[in-house]
Amino acid sequence: MKENIIRNKSFAFAVRIVNLYKILTSERKEYVMSKQLLRSGTSIGANVREALNGESKADFIINLPFLKKNSMKLSTG
């Protein structure tokens, strides 16, 4: 299978988010914001997979705004 940089990076990002979530909930006892971080951070990878598994190039392009939306949730304070 051909290596896909977007899929690899989104997976690595999701792993880092899950590890951060574990730290926030166990050591810092922070539950509300950490759950939103977990949802937003892991949904990027799900959207990447959906875009890559689309039936056409148009399917991939249609899913790009969802990727941007989820990444913006993480970058706004």
Question: Helical percent range?
Answer: over 70%
Distance between the termini: 38 Å
Strand content: under 5%
Poorly predicted spans = none
Task: Summarize model confidence as the mean pLDDT.
Answer: 87
What is the global morphology?
elongated
What is the oligomer described by this structure? single chain
Q: Which structural class should the secondary elements be placed in?
A: mainly alpha
Q: What is the string of SSEs from the N terminus onward?
A: HHH
Number of E-type strands: 0
* Rg of Cα set: 14 Å
> Biggest β-sheet, characterized?
none
Number of helical segments with 4 or more residues? 3
Characterization of this structure:
This protein is an all-alpha fold and 77 residues long. It has helices spanning 5-26, 32-52, 57-75. Helix 1 packs antiparallel against helix 2 and helix 2 (32-52) runs antiparallel to helix 3 (57-75).
